[in-house]
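Suppose you are handed a protein chain with no further information: no name, no annotation, nothing but its sequence. What can you learn? This example shows the usual starting point.
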Amino acid sequence: MKTHILVFALLLSVVGGYTLHAQDGGDAAPRKLFVASFGLGYGTLSNSTPNELLPTSGAEKFNSGGFAGGGYFHFQWKRGIFEFGSHGVNAFEQSGTLYKTQLEQSVFTFKGGYALINKPRFRLYPLVGIGAVGTNLKIANNQNLNLGTVLSTPFQEITLNHIALAGDVALGADYRFKGWRPKGNTDREVSFILGARTGYFISAANNKWRYSGGDINGGPSYGPSGFYAQVTVGIAFAKY
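A reasonable first move is to predict its three-dimensional structure. Written in structure tokens, the prediction is:
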């Protein structure tokens, strides 16, 4: 349901962007555009393998989705786009009868794209890129202990880490509001930008797990993938 709502928000931004663009004056689309933005929304998690790594009792299983956030920096010249960004999904900390657990997945990618629609204020653009996805699985004791127990069994918390090569495809749309132009620089503009994006990442499976003490031998093969949808807000620097 959350995914459907956020996809609808993307479609709404396309319609709304066109509507707002139709009300603008006759400015041309900028020749160069730099955008710094952050996104908030919902994403899916590859939770089956992490759930298998949890203790057999006393720990809550992870859901298949959670809060998705991201940060993006991209540069557009004419219609070509180059972007560096990261987005992640967080399954908030869960408390079982014996253990507290948390699962996080973060994707870092370099992307290239093309502005299919490149109006003075509105854009629609696909992106495709490559990078890496990191997974952190935290398991901690959920009980009050005395000092003697802690000192005799010090490993009351452990974090498992996994990194894999990833590919990412996305579709974004945004509307750039009329902003501020420095005196004597009518070809430059700083403005707020509002939009939405949706995407999907996939990764190459491997069994290279680590923990705070070193490598883990014999870990399960794991290749996370997932869908994400976000509303984005940022600032844009345009040169006409």
